[in-house]
Structures are given as structure tokens and as C-alpha cells.
Design brief:
Elements lengths: L4 E4 L3 H12 L4 E5 L15 E2 L9 H11 L6 H20 L14 E2 L9 E2 L5 H18 L3 E5 L2 E7 L4 E7 L6 E5 L2 E3 L5 H4 L11 H8 L4 E2 L4 E10 L2 E4 L3 H4 L3 E6 L2 E3 L1 H5 L9 H13 L4 E4 L5 H7 L1 H11 L8 E10 L2 E2 L12 E3 L16 H19 L20 E2 L2 H15 L3 E2 L1 H20 E2 L5 H23 L8 E2 L12 E7 L2 E7 L6
Parallel strand pairs: 1-2, 1-10, 2-6, 10-19, 20-22, 21-23
Antiparallel strand pairs: 3-5, 4-5, 7-8, 8-9, 11-18, 11-24, 12-13, 12-17, 14-15, 14-16, 16-17, 24-25
Amino acid sequence: MEKTMIIIGAGAAGLSAALEFAKNGIKSILVSDMPSERAQSVMAEGGINAALNTESDSSELHAKETMKAGRYIADPRAVSQMTAAAPEIIEKLFSDGMAFTLDEEKRPDVRAFGGQSVKRTFFAAADTGKQLMHVLIGQVRRYEAEGIIERRTGWTFLKLLHDSEQAYGCVLLHPITQEKMTCYGKVLIASGGLNGMFGNATGSVRNTGAVSANLFASGVKFANGEFIQYHPTTVKLHGKNMLITEAVRGEGGRLYVLENNKPVYFMEEKYPELGNLMPRDVVAREEWLQMKQGKQVYLDMSHLGKEIYEKRLKGVIDDCIRFLALDPRKEPIPVLPGIHYFMGGIWVDADHRTSMKNLYAAGECACQYHGANRLGGNSLLGALYGGSVAAKSAMEDEDIMEPPSPLVSDREAKEQTAGSYVENWQALQDIMKNGLAIIRSEETLQTALADLDKLTEKVKKEYDTTATEAENQALADCCLLGKALLLGALERKESRGAHTRSDYPAEREEYQKQTIAEFTGGKIQIYFQKAGEQK
């Protein structure tokens, strides 16, 4: 029985892991339903953080500001290791040919980003993710040609093969042919966030959260699920939200509302030190308060210079003209907060090992680095660094034993009636959006939980024959994970970072811990623990 490294997801984290394996002569299977060119990592616009200018910055300051933005619940050891590695990552990308925007000395330039006291965000105009993935994809193709990396594009993760303690592999499904493939080996998850569970997010709706949900249903711990980042500047567009990158504010863009037909720059008035570059959770809440009063929030970049338009924000200009029929050089952009990033995810330790042996996770699907709120520019860094660390951990750990028989993989079959996958999925999205909005309360969370319990019972009794086996299973699993997220928000009786409770508005010291959700004995358990500690 051939065993190899199995990577689920081919974005920045997945490619980083595959390259780490390949450099060490270890074969991996890279599984994704779409080509890497369509991974969500391509959509990242703003930049990658690194303390490369040691005269004004340091990796220690980068770590300090990461912890502060995350409200001190991230693992400080993991954060320090990531920020220490960041400068070398930028230098390596530059030497590998990444098309960074350059300064006058022909070195990668930096811009300001929210929650940071110095400029440390390296960027490629407004297309950082696209340029990054171009470099990574080219490197991976070399190893594909050598047979060290095997691509399985067009396949989806169906279920984990595991016993009570460890993973042995997974089952893949081809949604068109319905062919199944069983892969044995260590499994590294890099499947992205939970966009599909909520809808109207800025990220790819292909990132449904189904992989994370299947793992949670299989007993793998989840952490910090209530911390969902609402990006302050998005625009509703065709069933999802279009991102207006934070780089606009980093280059001097200003948020305002109109009062008596005059602009009021509410962020600058309330937060004079950082103004429009306060951490994203703060800006999103302030916008929500303005919108609650019936005001439209605008982002103004009409005062920025020609050089900024043409060299640093050209992609933003082009997107606004193409998709919004609006020229931001002449008129403001009407914006609103939109779901953008999931700080929570599969629980991992500082070395990206999950709670199940031989199972690893990296990138947005994992809980590491961001705590209660992510700094812009830390997501691509966390994906690149985390993918590499997860791969190293997998190589260090002992080889798996021969899998026992039978493995835990199949659910008990029950009689089911016809149902609508699409209608039930949309119902789940509505429940999650309402329950985990920018401002929460016991009342809204309890209402969402009651609605989700009703939907869960309905889903248990139904099966949509027009949907795939993976889709039907994902719906049931995501209902379970969705309940865990809501319960975590209910149990965290405070406001911290991206989690704001109107009935508990203060941050409380006893909750300066990770929220852990675990499905065991047929029930969801929620408890709190310090990052870096194990129960």
C-alpha cells in the first residue's frame, strides 16, 4: 500500500507545503477542485507584512502589534516564530522573481496598513496575491514535471479516514464522474476559510468550509470560530461582496459620512493617531454604528496623486470602473463592512499539528497567528510560513502504521426523503449571517441556534439526489460546525476583537483564552484554554 503526503487545497498554504516536501525529496499529492490560478490566494490585494527595515522596525515589534490586534489570545510563540521568519520570506520571493512594487533604489517598497505603527507591508500594486501565486505555481510545476508533486485537480475531499486517535488518509470524489479515490498517508489541510457557510463574503464561494466541517464532525478540535473579520471597505456585487483593498486607506484614502451635506471624517475625529488605519474590527464597528443611524459610509480617494493611481492602486481604479461604473478618481466609493476572513479554524499548535495524529492544517482553515482580529498583510505571511511549518512537522513525525479495518469513515445510513440542497444551504447562510453579525447578543445567538436546530433536523431527514454525495454530506457537517461557532460566541461573554456582544461590551481578563470546540460523544463541547496549552 503506497503512502504519501496528501495536501488538500492548492492556494498559497498548500503550494508552500508541497514545495517544502519536494525540496526534501518527499512526494505529495496536491488535491484541489480548481486550478491554483483560481485559488482564493490569487484574490489577495494588499500585501505581505515583514519587518525588513531594521532601522525603524523589528520582528519583535511586528509580533507585538500582531498580538495587540488579536487581543492577546494568539499563541505568542507561534506569532514570534512567524514574524521572525517574515523578512527571509520576502527576500526569497524577491530573488525568485516576484514582481513587487519597487522603491527608488529598486528594492521592494512598503505601504502603511491598519493596526501597525510603521510601514512594513510589501506589495505588488493591488495584485499581491496574483503575483505571489504566479511565482509559487511556476516553482511547483518544476516538481510536477519531475513527478515529485502529483496534481489532482478537479477532485474534492469527501471524508477523512481515521480511528479514534489518528488519520490514515482520505477519500476523494470527482464530482463529474462520481469516481472515488482512496489515498493513504499523512493529511495536510489547506482548504481555506468558511466563506460558503455565510455567503456574501469577499472571498471565493468555492471555499465552502466543507473540509473543516468534516474534520470537526470526525472529532478534530476547532478554535476561535466566533472571530470573523468584517472588512470595512466592500461593495455589494452580484451575490457577493467586492473588496476595496485596505491599501486605499494605506495610501491616504479617507472614510466619511455626510451630515448636512458636509463630509464628517468619523474615524479621524474619534481616533486621531491612526484614524482610517485602525485595526479592521474597530473600523467595521464604527461603520456599523454610522449605518445604524441611516448614514451611507463613503471611501474617498479622489485627492490622491497621479503616481498613486497609476503605480500603486491601478487595479482598484480598473475594478471600480469595470464593475461599479464608478471612477474613484472623481467620486467616492459607497462602502459597507463585509465578511472577509476567518481568524478561527482547525485547532493547531505552534507547529501546525492538529488534535489528531498525522493530520496538519495551515492557512485560513487553521486557527493560528491572528487571535481575535487579523492584521492586514498577515494572512499571506501566515499561509506561506504555516504551510512550510506544517510540512516540516509532517516529515518529522513517525510514519503511520498500517490502517486498521474498518476505519471510521462512513455515517450510519438512514431513510431520507427528497430535499433541496440549494434551499437548505441558503437557509444555513442566512442563519449564520444573522447570528454572527458584527454586533451579537444572547438574544440573536439563541435565535440563530434555535433556527439552526430546526434546519439540522430537516437536513437529517432529506437527501437531494440532484446534488453530489459530497454536497449532501457537507450540508450536514456544516450545520454541525455552524452550531459550534454559535455556541462559542454564546459562551464568550465579552467583547474582544472581531467578537462584539452588545450585552457584554467590555473585554474580560478571564476570556483571554482560545475558544475550543470539540465534537465528542455525539455532543459539542465548548471550553477555553490559553494558547500553547493543552487540555
